[in-house]
Amino acid sequence: MALHAEAEEFLSRPLERRMAIPLRVEVYTRLTEAIRAGVFPESSLMPSESEIGAALGVSRTVVREAMLLLAEDGFVNSVRGVGRVVSGRLPETGLEKLRPFEEASGDAGRLRRTQHRAEPASADFVASGLGLAPNEPTWLFESVILNGSTPSALLQEHLPGGAVLRRLSPELAEAIEQDTGAGSSALRTLLDALGARLGPAQSRLSVGAVGASRGAVLGLDATAPVLIITQTLECSGRPIYLAKILVDTAAMTPTIVQAL
């Protein structure tokens, strides 16, 4: 089947080709965006690997690897004698699986970076969460999650300084330092670079007042209540990631998908 005009236009946009992120993941991300946007409707037949590869400017092998990821996450099914078909029910997004918050926020989630800086010393919360001494350096990534054009959550991510990251992956350390993934969270860069080496992870939920400075970013009064999600992630037995997410539940309600 030939690509229809909308699919051709959607897929032909240049891939970001971000440092430390495998090309198959870039292709996977583009295809999930196309599926969720309805470019490839539910229960429809996906184009062939060759057609997708030609539109994206990548090899069939890369597309095949991306398709395997799509199948693992429930976006497509393989039908013998037919090909790959978009699932009739797309996977729910929520907090039950560790994923970047902009992705767990559903179709409307979009991220805008507001701060990216090296911190020469750490606050107690950050130092204890990352297993560092207070005088050790860290990275701060602050981003606003938008629901359409409305700020709905504030994401503050903390990672150890470059020496710790360089021991894990020089490419990852450079990607964090240069913020090459500015259109997505630092967690997305970590997941794409280290993958199966990461874990375990934990999220703690609480409720509190947003405060004056954070409220100003979200357009809320200082006393406005927000859902607070504190995330931690380990790699090779040591903490590598700490995040605090403040969610305006009037603009966004995170879900937890449960199974019996």
TrEMBL record:
BP-aspect Gene Ontology terms: negative regulation of DNA-templated transcription
Pfam name, any one: UTRA
Protein name (database record): GntR family transcriptional regulator
Source organism of the structure: Leifsonia shinshuensis
Coiled-coil region: none
GO molecular function: DNA binding; DNA-binding transcription factor activity
Source taxon at top rank: Bacteria
PROSITE patterns: HTH_GNTR
